[in-house]
Structures are given as structure tokens and as C-alpha cells.
Amino acid sequence: MSRRPVAQINLAAIGHNLQRVQQLAPASKVLAVLKANAYGHGLVRVAQALSEADAFAVARIDEALALRTAGVVKPIVLLEGFYEAAELPILLANNLQTVVHNELQLVALEQAELDGQLKVWLKIDTGMHRLGISPEQFNEFYRRLWQCPAVQPGIRLMSHFSCADLPGAVKTSEQLTLFQQLCSDKAEQQSLANSAAIIHVPESHGDWVRPGLILHGISPFTHQQGWQHQLRPVMRLSSRLIAMRKIKQGETVGYGANWQAEQDTWIGVIAIGYGDGYPRHAVSGTPVWLAGREVQLVGRVSMDMITVDLGQQPVETIGAEAVLWGPELAIERIAKYADTIPYELLCNITPRVDYQYITV
Ligand SMILES: *Cc1c(COP(=O)(O)O)cnc(C)c1O
């Protein structure tokens, strides 16, 4: 029995979810987004499980180099691009493709003297207002990139939605229309769609879709769960019941004594806390799956432990397995109780958690 909380990662489920993406966007190539340690699932293992993807995307160069060190040979795109000219030879040597989203990068490419050519994705800001050149700058950037000796012919064009997770948002159709107008006279490959747009905005699929969250089996929509899109959850986060005690009506549990028993009850202690990445802001009432039934979190989340209400006649014994999220308990539900999104829950898992990879 593991003494640590376990994040069990089902690599077969990742493969299934990739197939689901390919069904949803049959005419598009898949640029699988693996930033932030593959959404907390383990960068290299997830990349290896995605052998059918066409290319990978990460945020930063160190993530890309970790993949290369592990022997991953597929094309890799840096979504934030390079930060300084000195990185360009490293990109070239490691076959890394770069997003270009600002003038500094354009000038660095114009002045670069490289022994080869880099594949470039030009990012246009169509309304997210985070990264990307403005629509007014587009034609000039495009022309100058084509003239750069350091840039490979064939400049991919991309943008990013701000509201794709709100089905029917006007902003999404505005961004799509603007992007299509800008690209209409260019024969270049295009990419717009993140997970939410892959599901809900098929018009945006283009040449390359960019799924992140749905590869991990999770719905990008707050009112839905992965199974409703025929996705399979990939992570199963579990720990163990390590203590049980009976308390009387009116007694309180945990720091701040902010939960009080309405009747005599049994309290169970489970060995996981915010020091492992379980969200400290999960409120009393958050479900926990305990050896075959749902119980509720009571009191505050501690660093190493949480407490749950086992009721008046608990059937569990010490050592029972508790699942915090996974196939038995949708992470989308937990995110709501913790007033956050599944993305953040996944990224917050700490190195104290033991990762185990399975393939069934
Ligand atoms: C993170 C990211 C994605 C993937 O987003 P999901 O919602 O996880 O599918 C796609 N494109 C860009 C530019 C991103 O930063």
C-alpha cells in the first residue's frame, strides 16, 4: 500500500481521447498541447502515449528540450515563441518551431544568421489581447517573414479564442470572422481551435486543432463533464483513510472550527491536503469517493489531511481507498466546489504525489 497519495495516469484513456479529437476534427491535424507538465499528467509519458498526434505544443523552451532529451522526435511548437535571439540556434538544432507574436521576434529573425531555416507560426491577436500582432500589422509581418532567410517558406497562421468555453458567445464568431478575413488571400495553414472550439465551433477547425484539456478527458465547459463528449478521464487521484473518530453533536472539526456536527457522527481522516495539491478552497460538502460511496468533506483542508463525514454507522475501515477525482468522481465537480477550473487543480499537484502509469 502506497504511503503517498497516488495520481494514476491512464495512458490508454489518453489514446482514446486523441481518437475522439480526430473524430471531432477529421480534416485537421492535431497539435497536442502539453504545457505545464502535460496539465500535471507528466510531460514525457503523455507525449509518448500520443504517438498518433501530428505535433506537440509547449509554452516554453525548457519543456521542449525535456521532450527532446527523452527522445521525442515529433515537431514541437513553442506557443510563447523565443524570448531572445540567442535562443534561435537552439531552436534550429532541436527542430523546434516558434510562434512569432511581436516585433522583437520579427527583428531577431531578420537579423539572424542561421545554418538553416525555422518553421514559424504567426500569431494574430483577434480579440484575446494577450499574445499576437494586431490585424493592422498582419500584412507587414507576413511579408517580412517571407523575406527572412532564417524562416522556412510556409508560414502558419494562428490565433486564440477568449470565450470558446462559453458556447454561442458573440466574441467567438467575431474572432473567427476576423481571422478568416485576414487569412482569406493566403494559402497558408491555419490554426484556431482549442478544446472548447474543437467541440463547439467546428467552423474553426482549420488545418491544425490545438487540444489540451480534452486530451486529458475533461470538459472545457463548466456545465458539462468529459463523458458527455465521449472522453475518458485520465487521472485518478487517490489516497487512504488513516483515522476515524466519533464526535458529538455540536462539536467542531479542523482549523478555525468552522464546521460543526449537527448530530453525533463519525469523522474520517484522509491523507491528502493542499501540500499535495488538493485545493484548500474546497468547501464543506465537496464530494470524496470512499471505498464505493460518496462522502462529504467537512471542515478546512489542511496541508496533509482532509476530514470527511462518515455518518453514524460507517462501513469503512482504516486503510480504505479514497478517490479525490477520477473515473469515480468527475474533476469538473470538484473544481466547482473549490471555485476554480479543472486546469488549475491539475497544475497544482505537487511532487509529493506518486505518479503511476497504467495502460488499460
Ligand atoms: C493552452 C492552449 C491551448 C489548449 O487549450 P485547451 O483549452 O486546454 O484545449 C491551445 N492553444 C493555445 C495558444 C494555448 O495556450
SSE layout and pairings?
Elements: E1 6-10, H1 11-24, E2 29-33, H2 35-40, H3 43-49, E3 55-58, H4 61-69, E4 76-78, H5 88-93, E5 96-100, H6 103-111, E6 120-123, H7 138-147, E7 156-158, H8 170-183, E8 190-191, H9 195-200, E9 208-209, E10 235-247, E11 252-253, E12 259-260, E13 265-270, E14 287-290, E15 293-297, E16 306-311, E17 321-325, H10 331-337, H11 342-347, E18 354-358
Pyridoxal-5'-phosphate is lined by residues 33, 35, 79, 160, 194-195, 210-213, 220.
Modified residues (N6-(pyridoxal phosphate)lysine): 35
Catalytic activity: L-alanine = D-alanine
Binding site for substrate: 130, 303
Describe, in plain words, how this protein is organized in 3D.
GO terms for molecular function: alanine racemase activity. This is Alanine racemase. Its cofactor is pyridoxal 5'-phosphate. Catalyzes the interconversion of L-alanine and D-alanine. May also act on other amino acids. Substrate binds at residues 130, 303. Helix 8 links the parallel strand 7 (156-158) and strand 8. With 360 residues, this protein is an alpha/beta fold. The mean pLDDT is 97. It contains 11 helices and 18 strands. It is elongated, with a radius of gyration of 23 Å. Helix 6 (103-111) packs parallel to helix 7. The chain has 2 domains: 11-218, TIM Barrel; 235-358, Beta Barrel (Lyase, Ornithine Decarboxylase, Chain A, domain 1), CATH 2.40.37. The chain has an 8-stranded parallel β-sheet. A 6-stranded antiparallel barrel has the order 10-13-16-15-14-17. A two-stranded antiparallel ribbon has the order 11-12. Bound molecules: pyridoxal-5'-phosphate.
